[in-house]
C-alpha cells in the first residue's frame, strides 16, 4: 500500500502538467472570443471571460498539486541542492495558486504571474546544479539548456501574444517536470 502511494505521489508533477493543459483547453472552449495570437492565457480568468472560475480554480488546484509534487521531491532528495530546488518549486506552486486568487484585471496579477515563471526558472537552475553534482551530466545539460532557452527565447523572439510566450514557458516547465519524474 505504501509503495502504491509513493508511486502515485511520484506522478503528481505529471498530473499537474496534464491538469494545467486540461484547464487551459476547457477555458478556451468556454471563451470562443479568445485568440491565442492576441491574448494572454490569464484573460481566460479575467473579468471578460465566460466562466472564469474554470481557469482560476483550475490554476489553484494545479498549484496545490505542484506543491504536493515538491514535497515528493524533498522526500526523495539526496542532497541539499535538490531540497533547495524542490523548495523553489513549492514557491512556484504557491504563486500559481495566487494567479487564480488574483486573476487578470486585479492589481497583484502581473506580479504573481511573473514570479511564477521566475520561481520555476530558478528551480530549473537549482535542479541543473544538483544533477551536475550527482554526476548526471546529460540531465544537467538538458536542464541547463532549458534554463538558457527560457529567458533567451522569451527575450529574443518577437512573440505575437503573451499567450504564446506563456505556452512556450509551460512547455519548458513540462519538460523539466518530466525529467524530474524520470530522475526521482
TrEMBL record:
Domain of life (superkingdom): Archaea
PANTHER family in UniProt: HYPOTHETICAL MEMBRANE PROTEIN, CONSERVED, DUF998 FAMILY
Protein's name according to its UniProt entry: DUF998 domain-containing protein
Keywords linked to the UniProt accession: Membrane, Transmembrane, Transmembrane helix
Record-linked Pfam families: DUF998 (PF06197)
Transmembrane segments: 7-33, 53-74, 81-102, 114-133, 140-157, 163-182
Amino acid at each position: 500500500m505504501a509503495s502504491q502511494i509513493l508511486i502515485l505521489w511520484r506522478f503528481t508533477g505529471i498530473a499537474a502538467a496534464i491538469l494545467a493543459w486540461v484547464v487551459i483547453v476547457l477555458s478556451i472552449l468556454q471563451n470562443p472570443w479568445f485568440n491565442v495570437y492576441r491574448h494572454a492565457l490569464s484573460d481566460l480568468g479575467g473579468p471578460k471571460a465566460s466562466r472564469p472560475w474554470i481557469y482560476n480554480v483550475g490554476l489553484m488546484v494545479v498549484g496545490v498539486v505542484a506543491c504536493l509534487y515538491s514535497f515528493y521531491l524533498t522526500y526523495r532528495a539526496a542532497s541539499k541542492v535538490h531540497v533547495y530546488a524542490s523548495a523553489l518549486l513549492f514557491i512556484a506552486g504557491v504563486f500559481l495558486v495566487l494567479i487564480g486568487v488574483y486573476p487578470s484585471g486585479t492589481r497583484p496579477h502581473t506580479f504573481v504571474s511573473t514570479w511564477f515563471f521566475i520561481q520555476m526558472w530558478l528551480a530549473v537552475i537549482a535542479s541543473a546544479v544538483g544533477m551536475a553534482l550527482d554526476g548526471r551530466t546529460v540531465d544537467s545539460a538538458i536542464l541547463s539548456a532549458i534554463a538558457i532557452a527560457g529567458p533567451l527565447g522569451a527575450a529574443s523572439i518577437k512573440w505575437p501574444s503573451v499567450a504564446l510566450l506563456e505556452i512556450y514557458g509551460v512547455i519548458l516547465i513540462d519538460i523539466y517536470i518530466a525529467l524530474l519524474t524520470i530522475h526521482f
